[in-house]
Please model this.
Amino acid sequence: GEDVEQSLFLSVREGDSSVINCTYTDSSSTYLYWYKQEPGAGLQLLTYIFSNMDMKQDQRLTVLLNKKDKHLSLRIADTQTGDSAIYFCAERGSGSARQLTFGSGTQLTVLP
Amino acid sequence: DGGITQSPKYLFRKEGQNVTLSCEQNLNHDAMYWYRQDPGQGLRLIYYSQIVNDFQKGDIAEGYSVSREKKESFPLTVTSAQKNPTAFYLCASSSKQGGGGATNEKLFFGSGTQLSVL
Model:
């Protein structure tokens, strides 16, 4: 079946950029998503990218997609302590019956 | 305000007991989902429903049951057959745009229910 992989932990200094990486196996992926989860809460959609794009920017967030290598990244510029959370990558394959496949999440810790 | 509401926030189950987690949405979404989250793991799909009175098993349906009698509601019952029920349970609903080969599905999540075993 489809698989989505992420590293479990990332630490950065406040003000630096964070880059969270994700790889996936499904070559039919159409949309890829980044979700954020704060402690004890549900997931919040941050941004998404369609598979025919290679970059999307939204304020401090930049998503890069390398479809050939099946690699997705989320860059957070000027990382703040409020950005500390778990970040999930998710992909959706083609076909309306397909469900999202989530990665295991990356715990981002922002150090003062 | 539109949103998705889960209750209770915390739930304790005794051995041999069935418990039901509530999920209600007023977003007018057709599709609803239940996920289980364990520490250090991604979300695993338990059940989903794309329309009222219909639901499908996800990847880890054993020991769980659901119903979808109303569009707004998708309760999850954790039965005594689920031997390791301690986890964080997340309900979601989705809006879908497009169709056929390229559907953009944005999930909206509730705030979760932490289930623990006494």
About this structure: The radius of gyration of chain A is 14 Å. The mean pLDDT of chain A is 92.
